[in-house]
Amino acid sequence: MLMRLARQTYVRQYGEFTYLFGKVSSFDQVFRSAGPFFAHITRQPKKRDAIIDEIMHDYADVSREIVEKDFDELFSPLIAQKVILIGKNAKELDSQEQFFTYDCDNPKTKKDTHVYTRDEIAALPATLMERYFAEHPTLFSLHVDVTQACTERCRHCYVPEYNPIFLPYDKICQVLDDFREMGGIHVSLSGGECMMHKDIIKIIKAIRERDCTVGCLSNLTVCTDEIINALVEADGTVQASLYSMSPAIHDEVTRRKGSWIETVGAIMRLRAAQIPVLISCPCLRINYKGYTEVMKFADSLKMDAQTDFIIMGKQDCDTSNLCNRLHLDETRELLQDVILKAVPMNSEYFSPGKKEQMLSAAEWRKQKVCGACVNSMCLNATGDYYPCPGFAGVVLGNCYKDSLHDVWINSEETKRIRAVTGADFGKCAECKDRDYCSVCMCRNFNETGDMLKPAEHFCKVAAINHEVVDEKQRQMIEMAKCNAL
Ligand SMILES: C[S@@+](CC[C@H](N)C(=O)[O-])C[C@H]1O[C@@H](n2cnc3c(N)ncnc32)[C@H](O)[C@@H]1O
Ligand code: SF4
Ligand code: SF4
What we know:
Layout: E1 2-5, E2 9-14, E3 17-22, E4 27-32, H1 35-38, E5 46-47, H2 48-58, H3 64-80, E6 84-87, H4 90-95, H5 108-111, H6 118-123, H7 126-135, E7 141-145, H8 169-181, E8 186-190, H9 200-209, E9 213-218, H10 225-233, E10 237-241, H11 247-254, H12 259-272, E11 277-282, H13 291-300, E12 304-308, H14 328-341, H15 354-357, H16 361-366, E13 376-379, E14 384-386, E15 397-398, H17 404-410, H18 412-418, H19 441-448, H20 456-484
Parallel strand pairs: 7-8, 7-13, 8-9, 9-10, 10-11, 11-12
Antiparallel strand pairs: 1-5, 1-6, 2-3, 3-4, 13-14, 14-15
The chain binds S-adenosylmethionine and iron/sulfur cluster (SF4) (2 copies).
């Protein structure tokens, strides 16, 4: 019998923890003390007995019978889920590969997300894992703005200047090598417009060659069939910005005539190539009335979609783009609609279930507010490293001077951002609207110039969100009472 990892299974070893990620069904699981078992299952088919022979070297004083028993116990559920493949020959292995497809009622990445059951969560060594990752900050995700140039000039965009700066392919490969070496797993390409980079196809390939997942954030206006083929080869995914089903309104947001046709045309071509696409529809004053049409369009294509109304200032703290963001009465109108229809949001503003789980002020003060410099980091086209998409005003280092490892471990700026907890946000811990708010260093910084000082607008929006969620819950209780009569 031959065994190998499935094409879209990614394995990383962090200390005594083995992390397994299956991209097709968003499966993920953590194992403790199983490293020597996973180390010998690779993408190359190997005989089961040969794998067990290799494992035996690490367990010299354990009998083969026990190793085989542990091996079967560990891998049988993973084989059943096709995360690890087993078969008589290469053809049989290949035939078991699972791929994302729209040609079914329920495309895999859309609904099959693995949700841990209560028992599974209890079984995970959470405190040990927390301690390990607190002592060994681990970079899981890297966001790379391959250029600042863009084909569009969106009214709300946080990019201050669309400079034709392109991060060279060789430099990107050097960073990717470090990233992989450090245990990194997810890479997203963005900008500006990443598909304008002359080497975008090579970059996509380079990411996959380093056994990382690849995602592109794109407006798709210059998405060629060659780029689509590269994404297919690399098992890539796409997040596409679509602002309206009215071509005139979409083009009014992007300030590029004909952009709606280009974007929608590319979405259809990505779909035909079976590439998972998430449609993102940020809401501004000029497009928010039509956001449900974009959601319906996505649904008709069996694609995921999300909206958001959190528009932040530009990366250089210029707030002139904020005149496009919803006024408070419009925000209330949108939130009522979103909550009623349970539309996915690209933020934690809307979360009716949170009330019961709200942390005490003391607990919240101890917590990190986000993953910036904790498990993720960004690289700008200029070579500057920065904490999270949009937060380019804080520079952590530069890839022309510093290695990724050095910036991640030794940069004083990285350490400063990583050390931030709820306690640093003054009044937020005691705030009654805290769980209806996305306390966010980037949004604060871009609007107030101080990453720890919230903009008044976000506080007002959190209060509205709280009211709307409470109102909805009251209605549901009333309805339940009526139904019970
Ligand atoms: C900066 S763009 C880069 C990728 C690509 N050019 C695109 O538009 O999809 C990534 C996403 O950020 C959103 N975005 C841009 N400026 C924003 C802002 N000021 N606040 C919130 N989201 C913003 C865009 O609408 C887009 O969905
Ligand atoms: S939001 Fe994206 S497409 Fe629009 S101007 Fe900014 S970078 Fe370009
Ligand atoms: S509403 Fe304002 S004060 Fe309250 S948690 Fe959010 S940012 Fe902090």
